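Memo to structure team: turn this sequence into structure tokens by end of day. - J.P.
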Amino acid sequence: MVTTCTSTKVAQDDFFIQGLPNHWQSEQQLFDTLELSREFRLLSLKSAPHAFASTYDQEILFPQERWIQRLQNPNLKHLVLLPRSPDGTAASDAYQRVAWVGGIVVVKTPLDGSNEYDLAKASQDDHPLTRQTLPTSLRYRINALFVDPSATGQGFGRRLIQEALKWIEIDTETQGLSTFRVEILVDTWNTTAIQLYASCGFQGEDESDHIIDNEHRRALTMSIPSNVKTAERNSVNPWS
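Reply from structure team:
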């Protein structure tokens, strides 16, 4: 299975990580979350313009439908870092009420490269694609890791990766996968990020060239072997 990060003792009790729901109970819930999601994403692109495969100038022009599609995509898992309430509790609806402090996205696709496979529908009993037809091999790609500049240096990036890996392990066990792959694409110049992912068990593989916004960028693919066991974790999925 997957590994957990090397732990770092920091004061993080005032924050918690919450997964966005897979099903939205109302349009109001969706649109409230959309505004916070858009605000956080644009902040990340503006604050770290060379750390993503997109740009602020591109996404500021996205129509509302594009942002909704991201939140409703069944093959994405959004995990966000949020401040606790003044009384120290972790409010269940905080993700739609307060500004996000950090975030990370897990993208799930079949290992055969098909991005059109609807894994959520395929797992529903009343769908023509039954659970028996689900792919036995999946790729989990970690994307869009970002922490608000006002909160950097406190171990929140590591904590978000840690939670993403826990969610991936639970998901692989739930689906009974025989093979899976966890990977991240990092710019070769970003040695801080490379060291962070290495401390979480990722291993460097090959490098590749990309053109993003007319700029040449070289990226390193890092991955975690599927047979690496995770350290102790809670048995209940907090994001189901």
